[in-house]
Amino acid sequence: MAKDIEVGAAGSLTMIALFSAVALLLRSFYKRYTRLQNRENEEND
Q: Which 3-state string (H, E, C) describes the chain?
């Protein structure tokens, strides 16, 4: 019984870490993409 609880806690912590890492990556890629788009728009104007 105690093993299940420990595994569940470790699993949820792992999932939280994975989701936050993915969210940070997506955010940085989105920022870089929008910066590139703004630069292209300025060059075209």
A: CHHHHHHHHHHHHHHHHHHHHHHHHHHHHHHHHHHHHHHHHHHHC
pLDDT tens digits along 3-39: 666 677 888 899 999 999 999 999 999 999 999 999 8
| pTM, full prediction | 0.63
Residue type at position 11: G
- 33: its two tokens: 């993409």
In angstroms, the CA 10 to CA 32 distance is: 33
Cα-Cα end-to-end distance for the chain:
66
